[in-house]
């Protein structure tokens, strides 16, 4: 299974749409969003209608928490976890959140194979014991190039993608 990890999309509709077309064309089955969607309508009007797989997301520091929860409640393939989420996908334990300090604490528990976070807008991959700690960067392209990550559960490969090169 291929999982796309995005963060900090900040309502950049052209980037989000380009990513979603790429995801559909590249057999992405799951999207993890590490926060800062900003406007909850992005989930309702852009992500959910354009992607039929599962979408898991957490709050960032830029969002209307109550409205995002209300919007996500009505969409069957979208799950909002609050500030921190965790999944077990094909025996791979994944945690995700928005803030790097929280992600580091999750990674240090050694309870997960992968921990993803956002907030800094800087792509990052680091190994902490058996856990890979990673930031996919900013899909919104704020302060740096627009990026995202893809994890393949079959090959156990985590790859950073630059949006303008796809």
UniProtKB/TrEMBL annotation:
UniProt entry tagged with the keyword NADP: no
Keyword field: Metal-binding
Organism superkingdom: Bacteria
GO molecular function: hydrolase activity; metal ion binding
Keyword flag Metal-binding: yes
Listed EC numbers: 3.1.4.-
Protein name in the entry: Phosphoesterase
Matches recorded under NCBIfam families: yfcE (TIGR00040)
Top EC class of this enzyme: hydrolase
Cofactor: a divalent metal cation
UniProt domain Calcineurin-like phosphoesterase: residue ranges: 1-155
Ranges that cross the membrane: none
A Pfam family it matches: Metallophos_2
